[in-house]
Amino acid sequence: MDLGIRGKTALVCAASKGLGKGCALALAREGVNLVITARGREALEATAEEIRRIFPSGAGAKVTAVAGDITTAEGRAAALKACPGPDILVNNAGGPPPGDFRSWTREEWVKALEANMLTPIELIKATVDGMIARKFGRIVNITSGAVKMPIPELGLSNGARTGLTGFVAGISRQTVQHNVTINNLLPGPFDTDRLRANFAFNAAKLGKTPEELARIRAEANPAKRFGTIEEFGAACAFLCSAHAGFITGQNLLMDGGHYPGTF
């Protein structure tokens, strides 16, 4: 299927690896020009070069790498300078660390809110009016399956990402008449550094190695495996497509069937 977005421009945050990289690769495959951001310059440049190699100039998308922390005003300014009028915005930022809520300080809560709620809102605010004026816009926020089924040790993430979900539920109904959609992708267990870090955190408490815990968790999933970044990217690309203009304010859970609810 031709997604109808060739030649569009996308700003993809935290795209040097993991789910953000999966989204960047999928959009590049559709001929979307990319501005990708991440904190680590070396990994970001390596990802940019990989995309250029897979989709060479003239046959695919242009890729611009902007190193910086998107959760800071300076990082956002640098990204928006390189991509002031994106047609597509993929919001993504690393989640806060696991822990016990009793130990979290106000400063840690503020940092989590800045990264996983306020930064996406600031980027939406900076780009949505241009999308409305052009009568095309696709915004996808990478949140977490924990929005539907909270993970006890990820309380910082549970709280901040749920706040973003509530915000999107309201604004997405205002923008869709202009062919500007805003949706959330909720990853469950995908094979990423983040997942492996969580295994390392929990393994010692359970008397197991991270590798043992990973095998147990994979087997417990109805899919009997973890998701891949390619699968995640393909879903993101469809939500960004010309065919998805009637989908807005939705929370697409991708977890291999782990969430047991009907809705």
What radius of gyration results from the CA coordinates? 18 Å
Number of helices: 8
Spatial strand arrangement across the major sheet: 3-2-1-4-5-6-7
List low-pLDDT spans.
none
Major pleated sheet: 7 strands, parallel
Alpha-carbon distance between the two ends: 28 Å
Q: Percent helix among the residues?
A: 40-55%
- One letter per element, helices H and strands E, the order comes to EHEHEHEHEHEHHHE
Account of the 3D structure:
- There is one protein chain.
- This protein is of the alpha/beta class and 263 residues long.
- It contains eight helices and seven strands.
- Strands 3-2-1-4-5-6-7 form a seven-stranded parallel β-sheet, with helices on both faces.
- It is globular, with a radius of gyration of 18 Å.
